Amino acid sequence: MSSPAFTNLPAPDEVAADPAQAAAEWLVCLSTDNIAPDERAFLKARFDAWKQADPRHAEAADRIGNFIGQVSRVRSAASSTAPAHAALNAALCNTAEKNRKRARSRRLGAALALAVALLVPAWIGLQIYSPAYLMADIRSATGQWETRTLEDGSRITLGSGGAVNLNFDGSRRTLELVRGEILVDVAHDQTRPFLVETTHGSMRALGTRFVVSRDEAFTVLTMLESKVAVQTASQLADKHSAVTEIHAGQRVRIMPNKLGRVETVDARSVSDAWKYHQLVVQDQPLPDVLDALDRHRPGYIRYDRIHIESIKVSAVLPLDDTDQALQLLTDSFPAVRVRTLTPYLVMVDVPGEDR
């Protein structure tokens, strides 16, 4: 037994390429009010089988279910979400409502608009925040900074959307940077080395103060005081003893198999940028600047890298107000167009460029 309304759901034994999307479709369809009890029981059994097919399915379903529950509780304090749920059910479950009377279509359209207004921010959050971020020991929200003093007296500050895991024991102090950027002030402990690790390599503190930023393909280390000993992931895997020391006023890109060129930076400017929540760039491609601003605002900044990468930016931009930062960019580069389609979607382009 299976209604045509639910033909888009994954099969129970199908391993989903995107477990979060599949779990969301299951949960929304199970929450609809217009299905018979026997069909709901049938779908529930299929959903349980789908969760058992892969541990990632169950994890995604639990995570999204908890998140939706939290959102629903918040929304219910302000207004009823029944129209939003009805519209979302209709959209995701692909029901036959589209052929009903025009008056009903208008009501459905209004409900769908309300669903977008209420639930799209939550859905974007599910896409942005990975399970690793959500389960991290310490994390910061988008556009926020989180400062903590650790049990050894070290002080860390996470930038926007950052996340770390801590592993301190009697022999060493290890901080895993899961996502984002972190400023570290290391407390002295002669018996336990302090390490910051990412998938790209490891950094052992030989001094006090430095910044680590993690991207998908590489990690960037910026030294503010003293020095750090760096090893790539491949060196660690091969158990090499060789290390590269990065000193105050230097920056290096760490990739799994190699280190990039060591660059000179103004440590004072970097420190001030963290203190005042600023983005300080010198002759950087516009896409890199937009990527940095994107990390500090909810939603997305979208652009075509090829058509704007020739624009070089030197500026000091406020990270606490990314709308103002975007306005400053358009003031400096009149050819650049910034369109805010919604608070969660900004498009940047250069009109007239050949496509």
In short:
This protein has 355 residues and is α+β, with helices and mostly antiparallel strands. The protein has helices at 19-30, 37-53, 55-78, 82-93, 102-128, 131-134, 233-237, 267-276, 286-294, 305-308, 322-332, and strands at residues 138-139, 146-149, 155-158, 163-168, 173-185, 194-198, 201-205, 209-214, 219-223, 227-232, 244-247, 250-254, 263-264, 278-285, 300-303, 312-318, 337-342, 345-349.
Overall description:
The chain is globular. The chain has helices at 19-30, 37-53, 55-78, 82-93, 102-128, 131-134, 233-237, 267-276, 286-294, 305-308, 322-332, and strands at residues 138-139, 146-149, 155-158, 163-168, 173-185, 194-198, 201-205, 209-214, 219-223, 227-232, 244-247, 250-254, 263-264, 278-285, 300-303, 312-318, 337-342, 345-349. The chain is an alpha+beta fold and 355 residues long. Helix 1 crosses helix 3. Helices cover 38% and strands 27% of the residues. The longest helix is centred in the first third of the chain and has 27 residues, at 102-128. The strands form three sheets. Strands 1, 2, 3, 4, 5, 6, 7, 8, 9, 10, 11, 12 and 13 form a 13-stranded mixed beta sheet that branches. A three-stranded mixed beta sheet has the order 15-18-17. A two-stranded antiparallel ribbon has the order 14-16. The protein is built from eleven helices and 18 strands. Residues 1-5, 73-88 and 94-103 have low confidence and may be disordered.
